[in-house]
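Task: sequence in, structure out. Protein: DNA-binding helix-turn-helix protein.
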Amino acid sequence: KIKLSQFITSKGFIDEELRLPDFAADLGLSTHQASYYLNQYLNQSYNDFLNFHRINEVMIMMKNKSNFNLLTIAFECGFNSASSFHRACIKFTGKSPRDLRNYIQFNIGTGNKVEKQLDL
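Result:
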C-alpha cells in the first residue's frame, strides 16, 4: 500500500509505456498479485487505475495552465492517443475533453471543488 502511494505521488502513471509486469515489479509484487490487489481492493482494472490517475493529472494541468492544447496535455499525462484520452475522459468524468476543459475553466474562479462535483 505504501509503495502504491509512492507510485501515485511520483506520478509513475504518466509513463505511456508502463505495462503491468513493470508496475508489479516496481511494487515488489508478481503480476498476478498486483492485478488481484487493484481488482479486489480498488475495484479497478490495471488500465482503469492508470487512466483514472491520468485523468486526475489532466484536470490539475487544465486548472494550472490557461493556454493549453488538450492533446498536448493528454500526452504529457501518459495517454498515447486522442481516442484513449477521449474514452477515459468520458468514463471518469462523464464529459468530453473539450467539455471538461470548459467546465473547469468556468468553475476555476468560483471556489467550487471540481473533482468533488465530478465524483473523482
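The chain has two domains: 2-41, 47-117.
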